[in-house]
Specification:
143 residues, alpha+beta, Chemotaxis protein chec, two-stranded antiparallel ribbon, 5 helices, globular, cytoplasm
Length: 143
């Protein structure tokens, strides 16, 4: 389970060091791909494989399914972090998420998301006000 917000910096080579608390779970491999709202979604390899099994059951006769899978999988990269918990984010994903030096890595339950720090701050500012109002509608009985 991934929780929290961290603000690591990308180095000049496009590398990012994951927070120490996530390194063990990602050490054996991960998949990063395009996420919604122009972030990078990072899944442990086992979790991504499970998502793919679920996707196999989706009807590929439906154009929306094909479109979604094409966008998701065409941007996917499987990576094994180095011993320091560092990964290199490919240029196409850095461009997609508009990543510069300042990043936000947020826990999103079954995945991490890597955001441009300014984009994350803007998103959070826009969504926080409606957060309390939607809890019963989005996940009934959660809190």
């Amino acid at each position: 389970m991934f929780l929290g917000t961290f603000t690591p910096k990308l180095d000049d080579k496009g590398r990012l060091i994951f927070p120490a608390k996530f390194r063990d779970e990602l050490a054996s491999g991960l998949v990063m791909t395009r996420g919604q709202e122009h972030c990078i979604a990072v899944y442990p390899l086992a979790e991504f494989r499970q998502k793919l099994e679920e996707a196999r059951r989706a009807p590929t006769t439906d154009r929306r399914t094909r479109d979604y899978l094409r966008v998701l999988l065409s941007g996917a990269e499987d990576v094994i972090p180095d011993k320091q918990g560092r990964i290199t984010i490919p240029g196409h994903l850095r461009g997609y998420a508009d990543l510069d030096r300042e990043c936000a890595v947020i826990g999103a339950l079954d995945r991490l998301e890597i955001w441009s720090l300014p984009a994350w701050e803007t998103y959070l500012e826009q969504k926080e006000e409606g957060f309390a109002e939607t809890s019963e509608e989005v996940v009934p009985g959660l809190f």
